[in-house]
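Take a record.
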Amino acid sequence: MKQYAKRLLRFFCILFGITGFITFFMLILSFTSWPYHAYHWTGYFNAHGNDSAPETIILMGAGGFPGSESLLRCYFTALAAHDFPEAQIIVAFPADSLNFEKSDHYLMIKELQQRGIDSIRIKSEINGYNTYSQAVNISQMIPFDHSLMLITSPVHTYRSVKTFEKQGFKDVRVMGTTEGYTEVDLFLSKADREKKIKSPDANPSFRYNIWSFLQYEIAVLREWTAIAWYKIRGYM
């Protein structure tokens, strides 16, 4: 029994040691620009597809509405819809058909309408609960020869394109919903901007970037895990 307890203790010591090292390494990286570039680099994934106008724009839903990511995707979907006025739009996000008008899916449609998109152009895919099931359901809604434009977060672009291609779509492109950049000097007073050495509370990199970059690291690690799982399951 004592030997078993020692082995268990040793296992947890190793586990906590590895976890601590990873956490420390991620914290160090958050003081660099690598997490930002790793996250946004994924948004420049070069999907297979020609330069013709897409026939279908697919808004890949994300989280509750309103939310930062869902609003970003609605915004970019509306931009694409105005650029390609002949394209139909499919909103892919789970919803209860019995309470559809109270769902986040319906609110996303209303957001598109408020941005000038005619409701006639908008279709719904409400039964998919992840990228794979959404791609499967959409493959039953439109022909495989339709050219697609997927609207999703930068870190999700590779997996989404490969999943739709796996279903048989040949012309798939993607638009990553990259947010804008704000100059850090805007967060400083004139006196702080003129200081060569700033205190921690007047250093935007410490006040904001470190936490944002930690979130980028988590998002990238989560997506790499999802990609590995999709490859194992044969979804992409």
About this structure: The helical segments are 2-29, 34-41, 68-83, 104-114, 131-139, 157-166, 190-194, 204-233. The domain at 47-176 is CATH 3.40.50.620 (Rossmann fold).
